[in-house]
Amino acid sequence: MPEIKLGRTFQVRLVSDLAKSQAYYRDILGYKVDGWGHAERDDMVFILQQAVNGTDAVPNAAARKRTDYPTEWEGPPHGWDSFTHVSWDDLDMFVEEVRGRGGIIAVEPYTDSHGKWEFKNAIIQDPDGYRLVLGAMRESRQ
């Protein structure tokens, strides 16, 4: 039987003001945005759709902590709407790029570790409060 391969995933965001969100993703986050609402930068793609009611644009709440992960990590301290892997050095550069354009840095870059891994995360927020987590990992140097 042939192996089934799934294609590229596009995340869909209901937004309260489509024009404002398109401008933010284009001008602040550096995405290529088209008239269909596709916002694309490298391998990260969103489809921005106008919500019927502004209150329908609802970011994720923080997840419940878990003690059954394979390491001592219990989960993120904030709600995550998207998670994008970036290189260790690119994370800081992207945060500064977004900051320089007037973007919303919800959580400044921070580092932590779990198991044999060291990680660095930052959270950028869009106008509706969706949190785009940037995450870098590497083997712990300790």
UniProtKB/TrEMBL annotation:
Using the record for this protein, list the coiled-coil segments as residue ranges, or answer none.
none
Q: Pfam families per the record? A: Glyoxalase
Where do transmembrane segments lie in this chain?
Answer: none
Residue ranges of the VOC domain? Answer: 7-137
Which superkingdom heads the taxonomic lineage of this protein's source? Bacteria
Q: Which InterPro entries match?
A: Glyas_Bleomycin-R_OHBP_Dase (IPR029068), Glyas_Fos-R_dOase_dom (IPR004360), VOC_core (IPR037523)
Record-given protein name? VOC family protein
Please name the source species.
Saccharibacillus alkalitolerans
